[in-house]
């Protein structure tokens, strides 16, 4: 997934050959404070959190993100709120230490932003979209995903 800025300070997302307009800002960038994800409504899209992990194999499923901007990258680690995440049609919000090294990671809206969604575990999941937000702003980066990830698959 590649996030880019289009003309007139409109934030746009490039995924394959599609652009989605998602916000307007006159700032130069922001620090990541929140990430939201939406699990698809399609049957089989939700997943359960891993209850055990043995030699890298688990009975559930987990997602994590790598975010890169200006040749610097961060990783969220396993996205988990201790709530029942990844249910059909549910929007999950991750903030603070739930964002791992991506908490307060600076994104320059004048530069391309690259995000990689990673899945681990046997329980597959399908995310419709990921949004990356600052704390106080309507600006956000949006990427539509819409594919099913299973085992150790990833999407970027």
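-> sequence recovered:
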């Amino acid at each position: 997934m590649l996030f880019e800025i289009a003309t007139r300070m409109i934030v746009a997302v490039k995924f394959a050959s599609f652009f989605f307009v998602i916000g307007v800002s006159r700032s130069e960038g922001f620090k990541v404070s929140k990430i939201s994800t939406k699990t698809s409504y399609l049957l089989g899209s939700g997943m359960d959190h891993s209850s055990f992990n043995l030699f890298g194999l688990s009975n559930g499923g987990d997602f994590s993100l790598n975010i890169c901007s200006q040749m610097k990258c961060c990783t969220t680690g396993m996205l988990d709120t201790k709530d029942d995440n990844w249910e059909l049609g549910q929007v999950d919000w991750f903030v603070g230490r739930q964002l791992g090294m991506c908490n307060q990671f600076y994104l320059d809206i004048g530069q391309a932003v690259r995000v990689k969604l990673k899945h681990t575990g046997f329980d597959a999941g399908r995310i419709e979209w990921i949004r990356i937000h600052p704390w106080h702003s309507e600006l956000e980066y949006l990427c539509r995903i819409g594919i099913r990830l299973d085992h150790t698959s990833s999407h970027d």
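Confidence is low (pLDDT under 50) at residues 1-26.
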